[in-house]
Amino acid sequence: MKKIFSLFIFCLASLSVGLVYSCKKDGPPALPPNHNEVSASVILTSGPAITINAKGTKAPMGLNGWLGGGGYVDGTNDAGNAVYISIFPGISGPGTYDLASGYRCEYRINATSGTSPIYMNSGANAGSITFIKANAQEMEGSFTAVCRYGTDSVIVSGTFKGDYIGPK
């Protein structure tokens, strides 16, 4: 009887260990797919236009706190050219927002360089950003801005669409 009881305990312990290990997960859960896209054209005073076609993690965007909070739309191509748009103050929903009202657009020749010039919009006729979709799951729209660095200037225009990947 003692042997049967010991065998029963051994089998029960083996079964318990097997169940625990079979329920163990392999790493953290997968992130949802990132469908973000930013497409921009940068027209220079001289030379060919720069094209930025960024997708996925190269095109982060989001609205902090959804509507009413600030946000951003960023896009960087493989050569390091980048467009960064800061959405602050927050937006109230779909519509067109004047970039001269605090929203900022930057063009960086090489986002990975600490010495690369940063072209920024400012003052009157700074441009605009238009949201045709802005909700808790996605945002979509277009932008146009005149960005300056010293006496040089560029025209940045493009489109964006995607799901949020969170606050910046």
Physical arrangement of strands within the biggest beta sheet: 2-1-11-10-9-6
Strand content: 35-45%
Biggest beta-sheet profile: 6 strands, antiparallel
Poorly predicted runs are 15-23
Rounded to the nearest angstrom, the distance between the terminal CA atoms is: 67 Å
Instruction: Tell me the series of helices and strands, N- to C-terminal.
Output: HEEEEEEEEEEE
Number of strands: 11
Structural class: mainly beta
Average pLDDT score: 82
What's the alpha carbon Rg, rounded to whole Å? Answer: 25 Å
Could you say which overall geometry the principal axes of the C-alpha atoms support? Answer: globular
Structure notes:
The strands form two sheets. The protein has a six-stranded antiparallel β-sheet with strand order 2-1-11-10-9-6, with no helix packed on it. Strands 3-4-5-7-8 form a five-stranded antiparallel β-sheet, with no helix packed on it. Strand 4 and strand 5 form a beta hairpin. Helix content is 13%, strand content 43%. It is built from one helix and eleven strands. The chain is mainly beta and 168 residues long.
